[in-house]
Design goal:
33-stranded mixed sheet; flat; 77 strands; seven-stranded parallel sheet; alpha/beta; 14 helices; 14% helix
């Protein structure tokens, strides 16, 4: 059955597909532009016409559903077709639109059917167009396709089974922001090969652009273009992408403005030139690397893959996915010419192949990694041992052994889990085949079921390294390029007593076939083993993984370029730095993995080794190995190796000093250059070490004088000429290392380090006279001004003189014999007198009165004029008594009238809505205000949540607003505060009266505020909205006569009077708050007229009439009477357990 430039379909319409026959014999051909076979008894697709034609354009402007055309819809038109904005085409089976011109879906149009097929020379889907079907086909018309474009935003094409977009000669432009191509097929596991799976999406065209804001969600996608292909769209997680371009293939956004990362299963990319754009990432979710086997040592890229990739993509797919292939790459990038990997790109895969016939360009900061993508923990032929007792997992082995798992103490390390140890593990590379088997993982160190869980961790701890294969003619790299196939370090894992630490994974493989290198900076490739970790609580440590493999082969006769810029690291894993302080250093070697192999893929000639078969440097040799070995046959000193590229362990050498074969130095000389022993050292004949001379005396006071000495008796001399030549000590009368002479007053014996103090002179008025004195009897004389030693042997200082120089005492001081300092005179009276003489010898110093007071004879105390008058009129006591009586009389006169005025003042006038005893049945609760309504203690409501008693009455928000407004209005101004303080200093009684007036004014203001927030409908009330219509609520501010105690009472006027009952004090407790300031004028007291006190008085405690009222009022009156006797300070100190407070005890007893 052949479809020529058209469509052929066999569609079961309802029920099961029955048997059908065309009556053809052995040879049967059906050739058609459009053919539809239907079963008898079912209606066929109905040919439809345009809703109207405008300027030669067929326009579909009416919504068509399955209710009108129950089976399907077909439109064939010579020219352009437009499905207008908002039109919906909804059919149960097929929707076919075929035009010889352009087919346009305007914004918000939708089409839904079992099969949606659109044919035209141009196809365009605008914003928010939606196509939904089992299969969606967008085809060019009869080989004359110009373009198929989705420029609109938020376009959605949902193909449950299959989507095919074909424009072989034209452009596929899919770059609408937010647009999605979505498949409904179930995603197969990434480990499954693609052979046998059908493509979900197929894109065939001349060239194609998938924009960075576009999204392709399908499991298996084929993109095949004869020209350029730009794939910058987001790819579905777990997708398999097959891309082929006849010219250039761009993966990622060429502009670099919107880099994306593909998290996919597999990638096959083939083109003339391949570009991985700036910042683009390719990350494979899984790989079939577990199936890989060793392959023949040859460049698979040049021999097979390049040729296969040049064919169509279906042939390339079959070649690369066939399970019998020795290597299964999950990412293959093949270019017939060049591969360009731009700056910041990331390619992360378990098995990565980069294959180009000519050049490979790698930009700055590119990461090519197969780190940790090998075998999982506990998996692989060379995986480390897993012990289920207390032991760390062994490290994975590769060409060399990994480290052992062990337990440790502070002084020792004991191996308990061996590294990977199969027979072929730790064998050498034989050049006949390439090691492409996945590197093994480290030992789990935990039970098997936890080991499986460990292998599923996203960070892949203990996993072996993967495979990276690069085959290009010339490799060019920039700075900070990383090519890595490292094994991953282990971790501490497990719980519930089943904890352990897993071993490090083995390094993977990096294989490169190159002809030349051009690098701006060093290129580092690494296949190192995973790090060993420890558990310091259980004292267990895992083994590190062994190093992997780095091999470089070249296709020409000679490697060209800067080969020294390529550095390969295949070190075995080491112990994590944080464990180094816990695990003894002597056992680290057991834990470390051995290094892997970095070699040329072609066996080097003897004397050459390394990845470029470079000649071994001087002092190294090799014969058929992978690395140069150290020469060890020359003498340790005064010899050097002379030849490079040596092929055996007997390396040629020559003596730098002395004569072969031992290269000994002359007597008195040592070292590589036979240098003479320095001054102060000697060397015995036949030895190689200069020893220190020890025969000179005096320490640093002597020095050796001759170099290159050959006996222990080295010549020396004393440092200072005056020293003794045998002992090199200073003579008597000298001190210190430099033999400094002792100053006057000090002496020393021979060899003294410091001079000693002379102690034979008498008193403070004698001085020593001689230097360099050798005995304790030092000569001395008296200081000037004191009689000489001949007439004053003790050098005494007379009275009236003092100090070290025996100087005369100044005016106002005196001294006795041999005084060190003059003492101040203290006998003159007052400030109107002065001392008159110096060098005074007793405390009664001479003085006189100053000229502005009476003389000493008439005024012996030298008093001033005022004090002289006080003394004259009887003294200070008599004058003080007279002034005190006068002041007391003034205070009595000032205080009597203000106190009477205070008690005669009326309390705050009657306020509208005041709490009177008639409102007692409607009373709900009371909230007392903080503070005393005075400076520093203003009234205030507590900030925070609504009090518990009011939560059913008021709203949180209005209550917080009311609280803030109330506290602001209750603040006391600085002017009020200053006025009261001033009056308290001038007239306390008037200050009390002014303070009372101020407090009452503030209380009136707050009363009006509370009333407005309770009843004023024009303001935001505090009550719950649902209570305003059902109940009549009210709150009132009240206070005592002195306006010191404030409280807000809450009422429900809608209550029934018959519901009220008095408080039963036998079942409930009530507290009463006293008002007042605790002062004499305003003592603490309980308000007897408070309606709540009346409420308490109405409880029937006994059968006696009015017994409860008497009891309550008795308590209140007793408190009011006794509280006047207790000072405020004693009441405030009750909580401080102040002892001996009889008046407080009296109050409690009363």
């Amino acid at each position: 059955l052949v479809a020529v430039d058209g469509i052929m379909s066999f569609v079961p319409l309802r029920g099961r597909c029955g048997h059908y026959s065309f009556g053809c014999s052995r040879s049967c051909r059906i050739v058609a532009s459009f053919l539809l076979v239907v079963w008898p008894g079912h209606s066929a697709i109905l040919e439809r016409k345009c809703d109207f034609v405008e300027a030669g354009v067929c326009r579909i402007s009416k919504t068509k559903t399955s209710a009108e055309d129950s089976f399907g819809f077909q439109l064939t038109f010579e020219g352009d077709v437009v499905i207008e904005r908002g039109v919906k085409l909804d059919f149960r089976n097929r929707l076919v639109i075929q035009a010889t011109g352009k087919v346009t879906f305007e914004a918000n149009s939708k089409a839904r059917a079992r099969v949606v097929q659109v044919v035209g020379t141009r196809i365009e889907l605008n914003s928010q167009v939606e196509l939904q079907a089992q299969a969606v086909n967008l085809f060019g018309y009869q080989g004359n396709c110009k373009s198929i474009a989705i420029p609109g935003e938020d376009v959605r094409i949902f193909a449950r089974s299959f989507l095919e977009v074909k424009c072989p000669e034209g452009l596929l432009l899919l770059d609408g922001a937010g647009s999605t191509l979505e498949s409904g097929t179930t995603r197969p596991h990434c480990a499954r090969p693609d052979i046998g799976l059908d493509f979900d999406f197929v894109f065939i065209g001349g060239s194609a652009i998938f924009g960075p804001k576009f999204e392709v969600n399908a499991s298996l996608v084929r993109m095949e273009m004869t020209g350029n292909l730009t794939m910058a769209a987001k790819a579905k997680i777990g997708a398999r992408l097959y891309m082929k371009a006849g010219s250039n293939l761009h993966m990622g956004d060429p502009a670099g403005d919107d880099p994306t990362t593909w998290k996919i299963c597999r990638l096959r990319a083939s083109a003339q030139n391949v570009f991985v754009e700036t910042g683009h990432g390719i990350w494979t979710e899984h790989s079939s690397i577990d199936w890989n086997r060793e392959v023949e040592n040859k460049d698979l890229c040049a021999s097979n893959i390049l040729n296969e990739a040049s064919r169509d993509i279906l042939s390339f797919r079959q070649y690369t996915e066939y399970q019998s292939r020795p290597i299964m790459f999950d990412v293959m990038v093949v270019a017939q010419e060049d591969i360009h990997i731009a700056e910041g790109s990331r390619l992360l895969a378990a098995a990565l192949l980069l294959c180009a016939r000519d050049k490979g360009h790698v930009g700055k900061g590119v990461l090519l990694s197969a780190g940790g993508r090998g075998r999982a923990p506990g998996n692989g032929d060379c995986s480390g041992e897993t012990r289920h007792d207390i032991c760390g997992g062994g490290g994975a082995s590769s060409f060399r052994q990994g480290g052992s798992g062990a337990t440790y103490t502070a002084v020792s390390v004991t191996p308990c889990a061996s590294p990977g140890g199969k027979e072929w593990c730790s064998t050498s590379f034989n050049y006949s085949s390439l090691p492409t088997v996945a590197a093994s993982g480290g030992g789990c160190g935990v039970p098997d079921r936890l080991c499986t869980k460990l292998g599923k961790k996203k960070e892949r701890p203990s996993a072996g390294g993967g495979l990276i294969w690069i085959s290009v003619r010339q490799l060019t790299t920039s700075e900070e390029v990383q090519i890595s196939a490292n094994g991953y370090s282990g971790i501490a894992f497990g719980s519930g007593g089943k904890e352990g630490v897993s071993g490090g994974g083995a390094g993977g493989q990096i294989i490169m076939f190159l002809e030349a290198l051009k690098m701006e900076h060093k290129l580092v490739v690494s296949a190192e083993g995973g790090t060993a970790v420890c558990d310091t609580d259980k004292n267990i440590v895992a083994g590190a993984g062994a190093g992997g493999f780095v091999g470089v082969g070249w296709t020409g006769q000679k490697m060209e370029g800067d080969t020294a810029m390529l550095q390969a690291f295949v070190d075995g894993g080491t112990l994590r730095q944080s464990c180094g302080t816990s695990v003894p250093q002597e056992g680290w070697k057991l834990l470390h993995g051995e290094p892997g192999i970095a070699t040329s893929l072609k066996q080097c000639d003897p004397g050459r080794a390394g990845i470029f078969c470079e000649s071994c440097p001087v002092g190294k040799w090799v014969h058929g190995g992978f690395r140069c070995n150290d020469c060890k046959n020359k003498p340790k000193l005064r010899a050097k190796y002379t030849a490079s590229g040596w092929t055996n362990e007997t390396c040629p050498f020559e003596c730098t000093q002395g004569e072969p074969p031992d290269c000994f130095c002359p007597v008195g000389s040592v070292g590589d250059t036979c240098e003479e022993c320095p001054v102060g050292k000697y060397v015995l004949p036949g030895t190689e070490v200069c020893q220190a001379c020890t025969n000179k005396p005096g320490g640093d006071d002597s020095m050796y004088t001759v170099a290159a000495w050959s006996t222990p008796e080295c010549p020396y001399t004393c440092r200072i000429e005056i020293m003794d030549n045998k002992t090199c000590q200073c003579p008597a009368g000298y001190e210190g290392k430099d033999c400094d002479p002792c100053p006057p007053g000090r002496w020393s014996a021979q060899g003294s380090e410091q001079c000693k103090e002379c102690k034979n002179k008498p008193g403070q008025w004698a001085i020593y006279t001689s230097t360099m004195w050798p005995t304790p009897d030092c000569p001395y004389e008296c200081v000037p001004g004191v009689p000489t030693v001949s007439i004053n042997p003790d050098c005494n200082c007379p009275a009236g003189f003092a100090g070290l120089l025996c100087e005369s005492c100044p005016v106002g001081t005196w001294s006795s014999v041999n005084s060190l300092e003059c003492r101040p005179c203290t006998n003159k009276p007052g400030k109107f007198s002065v001392y008159t003489q110096r060098a005074w010898s007793n405390p009664s110093c001479a003085y006189k009165c100053t000229s502005d007071v009476f003389n000493v004879h008439d005024n012996p105390k030298c008093l001033g004029s005022l004090m002289y008058a006080v003394e004259f009129y009887g003294g200070p006591l008599r004058i003080t008594v007279i002034f005190g009586l006068w002041l007391l009389a003034g205070v009595v006169l000032l205080c009597v009238r203000p106190r009477k005025m205070y008690f005669d003042r009326e309390i705050i006038g009657e306020r509208r809505g005041q709490f009177v005893h008639e409102k007692l049945p409607y009373h709900l609760c009371r909230i007392y205000l903080c503070g005393k309504n005075e400076p520093g203690k203003a009234w205030a409501l507590s900030n925070g949540p609504v009090p518990e008693a009011l939560q059913d009455l008021v709203q949180q928000g209005p209550w917080e607003s009311f609280t803030a407004e109330f506290n602001w209005a209750a603040q006391i101004t600085d002017s009020d505060n200053l006025l009261v303080q001033f009056l308290m200093l001038v007239q306390p009684s008037i200050a009390q009266q002014i303070s009372l007036t101020r407090r009452r004014r503030r209380a009136e203001t707050l009363c009006r505020l509370v009333q407005s927030r309770s009843e004023d409908k024009g303001r935001a009330l505090v009550w719950h909205n649902d209570l305003e219509n059902e109940r009549t609520l009210q709150m009132i501010l009240s206070c005592d006569k002195g306006a010191t105690l404030g409280y807000i009472d809450f009422f429900d006027i809608s209550l029934e009077l018959f519901d009220w009952k008095p408080v039963d004090l036998r079942k409930e407790a009530r507290f009463l708050v006293a008002h007042g300031t605790g002062t004499y004028l305003d003592p603490f007291a309980l308000d007897v007229s408070d309606p709540l006190v009346e409420q308490l008085a109405q409880t029937d405690l006994t059968e006696e009439k009015n017994a409860t009222a008497k009891a309550v009022y008795n308590i209140v009156f007793t408190f009011n009477r006794l509280s006047r006797l207790v000072p405020k300070s004693e009441l405030e100190s009750i909580d401080h357990n102040t002892p001996d407070m009889p008046r407080v005890k009296m109050l409690e007893t009363g």
